Every structure is written in structure tokens, then in C-alpha cells.
Amino acid sequence: MPRPYTEGVDDQGGTRPDLLSLKPTPVSRPPLDLLARSRLMAKLDCAADTVLICAPAGYGKTVLLTQWLEGQPHNVAWLSPDQHNRNSLWPALLQALRRCPAVAPGILERFSGTEISAAEVLGDLAQVLAATGTTIRLVIDGVDGFAPAERDYWIPALLNHTGQPLQLALAFRDNSAVDPGPARLSGRLVELRTKDLAFTLDDINVLAAKTTTLMGMQQQRELFRQTAGWPACVVLALRYLREAAHPDAPLGDLAANNRQLSDYLDQQIFRALSYEERHVLSSTSVCRVVVAAQANTLAGNRNAGGVLSGLADDRGIVESAGSGRNVFLVHPLIRAYFRAGLARKQPDELLRLSRIAAQWHERVGEPAAALRHAMDSEDNHLIGGILERHGAALLGSGEVINVRRAITALPDALFAGSPKLCVVAALAYVESRQPTTATRYMAAANRSRVDDSPAELHELQALATARLSWFSDGWEGQDPRSTVDHAALRFSRQSNVRIEARMVSVTAALVEGRYGTAENEASAALIEATEAGNAYLAGKVYLKLAAIHSMQGHLRRACEALRLAEEKLPSHLWTAGAGRSVGALMHAAAGLLRADPAEALLFAGAGLSDLGQLGSSSKGVGAALRTTLEIVNACAQLDSGDRRHALEGLRQARLRISRDHVFAHPLAACVAVLEHTAALGLGHPDHARDVLEWAEERLPGTGELCLLRAQGPAGISRFDAALDRLKPLHTGAVKPVLEWTRLHVSVLECSIAIRTGRRTLAGKLLEEALATADELDVLRPLAIAPQEVMDLLVERAGACGPHEALVQRLLALRPPIDARRAQSLTPREREVLTLLPSHLSQEQMAAELHLSVNTVKTHIRIIYSKLGAGSRHDAVAAAYKTGYLP
User: Fold this and answer.
1) What is the DSSP letter of 163?
2) In contact, 458 and 485? CB cutoff 8 Å
3) Which CATH number fits domain 9-194: 3.30.360.10, 1.10.760.10, 3.40.47.10, 3.40.50.300?
4) Of the listed ranges 16-20, 655-659, 761-765, 822-826, the one predicted with least confidence
5) Strands 318-321 and 290-291
6) Which of 200, 738, 756, 764 is deepest in the core (most CB within 10 A)?
């Protein structure tokens, strides 16, 4: 087969960036093996009669056909307008067939090349070629390079005569060059278009590796985004990046910064366009997506939509979609080229077009797009006006980042005369969990507010005041629901305001511990958000539901609601507003309660690093988040082995929970159980007594207080007293604040049953504990259970029915044998252990503990055994190592 193109030439003679030129050493043969495109090869192999490949220049049509036909040149006839007279397609076709090795010399002598009847002559040609005994593959590379009269006459005739003994392969840039309508009906046609030929991200990765181009993953993604996989442009960009060799540097605007790439587009694409087409593409380059009416407005041309439609149908550089195919997406490189040209040569025109686009989008009810274009226009009054009119709605739909960027861009003078703009700014910063900044904007709004302000402004001020109140020290004295303005929010004409007002009520109900009311309000808000099609507010409601379930100790329900919130809130919105702090907190708490301290520490650290923006309030929502994260962080450190500092961390967090602290009751219940259990487990009875005294004052009439009162006696083998103190829980006289407290109770009762020889009861209690743990998805109380409970769990492994998977998870969490020995120390043994570092004799230790000397000796012997020590010195060293001695 004759070589179909010369080195560095693509398609219709245009210069092609040669893939081989990227390699450090020259290679003589065409670059067919740099990127094997097996998917496209497979589609071409399925072609029975005809192959049509239509794409702009630089999509590798010639390379693909050459790669497909390589190794079988004997039956290929190849012609292109560069090798023949463009005005004579039939003679060129005959010449290509005569050069085909499968066609015997002289067999085509009967044809002169001057025949004019396509139907007759092609029928005769088919008879002659049938004598070759093989299918001749006729490739016309660059159909649209031939004269229109020639191709419009001969190409349809060729399409109608394909089949044995002729297979036709046509490559062209302009879709109008070939009408395959009748051939499509046969079902024996394979078509490849621009999207088929574009490189994928994986293709770019492979090509970068084979051309030794150093690229970071972020650069690869950005290259794919900007080029949409346009092969020639990818190659030029890789050459540029190979010379730069900075894999972590930003890619920048390729169309604006890469001269070779822009020259290539200019020579191969734009010179073939009419002035009108170039003007329309330039005028609409300020928009990512444009509809026909908008294109007409931007270009000042009633036919601009028709021009884009023609480019979409024929040139492959514009995509059309939507009803009537009147929505257009210009190829990103084409758009970037024209936008860069405006920025360089006509910056004022670029600003004017952005201003027109902003006004058009606002007029058709698309405020988010309007704000983006207003920002591009650098028109502060236009930006401020859009924020005044649509800022609240934009925040309610999740446009937090863009609204804040717009606010930052505006001068202070605009805010001084606009209370509504100040309120929008306040709401934006509340949404971003920055109440200090929001408060400053609210103060400015109040200073410039007038008596006859419109109702909408009153509503937004009431909403901003309500949401800000939860972050202040005086939240308990400024319940926003008691004000007339807030009461009116439920009847607002704006659905986002009504939904946000319900969420304020959810927070109020949570603070008061009315969880049923909070869930009902959240459910109503969720229904309204769903009916309004507002995914952002629906995500925020799910976040509220997650908080409701979490504060009751229903971890499984909380995590399911959190999952739904994360689905509704994209990652950039999650980090910018609603989910940032609360989401980190709930992930951290889930990690702790699932006995995964590493995950708990990870999320707690992320949450704590973010809380600096929540202001200095010691009692509001920010303080509650901070305290909860500190509790989780300290407890996770304890579970990770850092026992010396964990107890002190829990104590410091507990002491920060004042009576008028928001969410004080569930926080007190949580820290009391965690800290008291940890103090007893580590052998610090004085610390445990301090927690109990605090809980007596702060948690009267709760199941948590019953648990704490029972844990102390159980630790010194006063089992009857312990069980007696748990009775109010079983009679229903008291209830726990947190559901997972019941799991601690079951573990304690199981331990007592084992130690009093009632193993049947212990087994039943263990089953109840497993069922509760499975229901709540809480493992930690079982994971830190006394050794006797763990031993019973080991005995029953394999026979726990529906809870077997949970048992295996718990067994996988068991610490090494040495740590288990340390955990098995009884409370009395821990008391003896605390005296070992002293210089007291065994007699003095017995007097200190009010025990007999023999009892002390027995305890010391057991301590040595459990710690793997042979002497008092070794026992003390082991105790310090495991954290049982501070």
C-alpha cells in the first residue's frame, strides 16, 4: 500500500503535530504504536460495507485508517485530494485502484476516466473487481477536499454500490460533504465521529508516559478538561509540558498561553470559517453553554443561533442539545481561543459581552449564571444589584462560594447604602460558619435599615438574626421563635426562607431536648425542600436529622441521614458551608462508637482545625461543637493507647459544659459515661468519684446516673448494691439520655453475672448486648468490656446467629495478650498497683488500704503475673508503659 501521507501531514494536507517528534530519538516509521486504540480498531473491524470517519482536523483520521489497514496493503486503494486533481474524483479513483496490488495490471484498461454515468460505470467496475477474488478496500481520505460537484455526484453512487467486491472508507471534516442516509438504513455502516476519536483521560496518561512527559494527575485532568481529548491539541500541549517539566505547576490557559496550539487552531480550523461564524463564536465565548436566543443577543445577529446550529451539524466543533437542539456547547478549546483573543485585543468588548450575558441570564430567571457573568464584567453595581435581588435565593440553592466571592469583590461603599446587601452578606457568612463576620454585616444592616423596609428585607433580617442567635453566649435569652418577624417566616413567599425557618425551629427543639418535635419539623422541611426540587436544602435537612439521631445515641440512623446529606451536598458545598463542622463531628463520633479510634482522631482533628471560625462564644453552637469534638478526641486518644493525657482531656472538656451551655444535657451524659468508665478502667477511683459527684448535680433522674452509681460498687465486688442501683432503669422510672448507655448497662450486668457464677444469665445478657450493639451500630462498650465478658464472647463465637458478623468484628478488635492481661486487673488490684511506686512496705500498704498483709501479698503476686513482671521494679515499669500509672 502506498504511503497515504507524508511525515507531519494530516488529513487534507494540514500540518499535523507528529507524535514521534515528542520522543527523544527520531523514528522513521509513522507513529502507529504510540497509542494503540483497540476500541476503535474493533469497531472498524465490524464494518461490512462502509466506514465513515467525520471529525475536524487534528483528530487523527488518517492515522487511524493507516493503523487499521497496516499489514494488509495488497487490497487497499488509497486516494486523497492532495495526491490528485480535486476537480476529478473518478479519474483519481481509477488511478488509486490501478496502484492497488490486488488489481491485476490492465484489468481496468476498459475505463478511460472520462465516463459520466456513475451508476453504469460503477456497475461495470464491480464486475471487473469481482474477478480479483478479494474485497478491495477503497479509502478516500479527505472527501470534502474534492470539488463539491464531483463528490455530490460520485460519493452517493459509491455508497449505493458498496458490498462485494468493494468496501468503502471515507474520511472528511465537514459533515455536509457526505449524505449517508440511504446507507444507514442497510445497517452495514460504521460511523466514527469527534467524540469517538477524542482521547480519553487514560489515553492521555499512556501517551504522556510513552513520550516521557512528566505530568501530575491534576495536570492530566486539567489537560483533558481544556482539550476535551482533541488529539492534535493534546500532543502540542504535551510537547509544551515536556519542555516545562513542572508536573505540579498549574497548567494555565492553553489556548491563551501556548502559541503553537493557537496557531494550529488558527490555520486548521478558523481559516476555514466565514467572518460571520468567527464573529458568533467570539461573541458567545463568554458563555460555557449558550441557547440560540442568547447567541442572537450577544452577537447582535438574529441568525447567530442558526450559525451555531450549522457549526454543530457540519463542523463538529459545536455540540447541540435540548428541545429543538437549540442549546449549544462550543468545544472548550474553540471557546478559550476566542475568549483569549478578546482579552488580549478587545478587553472592553469582553467586559461588555459579560455584562450582556449577566443581564440576559437574570432576565430569563437564571441568577447563578447571571452572578458569574456579572463577576466577569467587573461591574460592581451590576454585581451588587444581582446580589440584592437574588442573593438569598442563591444561598438557598447552595451558591455559597460564588456569593461570598462576589461579596468580597464589592467595595464597602455599596454595603453602606444597602441594608439588604448587608443581610445577604450576613446570611452568606452564617452559612459558612463564620458568625463573627456575619455579625458585623448585621450591625451594618441595622444601622441603615429604615422603617418602611420591604417585607422581604424584614424576613431575611429575622432569618439572619435567628440563625446567628445560636452562636452567641446569650442564645437562651433571644429565642428567635418568640419574635413576630420569625413567626411570619413560615408564611414567606420564598420556599427557601420557609425551609430555613423550620430548621431554626429544629435547632430550638433540639436544645430543649424535644426530639420528637425536632424530627417532625425536620420531616416537614424535607418534604418542602423535595417538592421545591432544592437538593441543597434537602441535604441540610438530612444533616439536621443526623444530629437529631446522634444526640439520642442512634448511631445507625444518624449515619444513614449523614450519608443522604453527603449525597445531596456536593463536596465543594460540603466544605464551604452546611456540612463542614457538623459532618466532621458526626464522622468522628461514629468512628469512636464503632471502636475505630484512628478514624475518630482523623475527623476530630479536621473538625477542631475548622472551629476557629465559629467565634469566641463559650455557650453557643460553636462551643458545643468544640466541646463535643474535644470529648471524642480525648476518648479516641484513650482507645489508641495514650492513657496518660486522655483522662485529663476528658476532664477539661467536662468542666467547660456549663448549665446554660447549648445541648448541655446530652453532652453531660456523654462525657460522664465515657470519663467515669475510663477512670475506673484505668484504676483511678478518685477521678471516677469526682465525675460521679458532677453527674449527681447535672444528670439527676437519668439512666446515665444510675449506670455511674452502679459501676463503682461493681468494681469492688458489691454486686447486690450495683444491681440495686440499676433497678430504676429496668422499671422505667428513669430513662437514659443516650440510647447507647443501655449497652454499657448490659455489659456491666453481664460482667456481674459471670463473676457471681450465673453463666446462663450472663449468656442471655450478652445476647441482649449484641442485639443492642447491632441495632445502634455501636461497638465500643463491648470492645472495652471487662476480660470476663470478652472471654464469654470468645466461647460463644460461631454460635451467635444473626449477630455472628458483629462478634467477629469485635474479636478482630481484641488487643494483644499483654494488653489484655493489664486490662484484667481488678479495681482492688489497681489500688494496690498505685502504691507500688512508693517506698511503702507491704505492711504499710495493707494499713493504707485497710487490708490484711496476706491479702496485699496475694494482690501483688497476681499483679506481677498479669503484667508479666518478676519484681516490684518491673511491675512499676510495665504499669507506666501501659498507662495504668500516670
Assistant:
1) B
2) yes
3) 3.40.50.300
4) 16-20
5) unpaired
6) 738
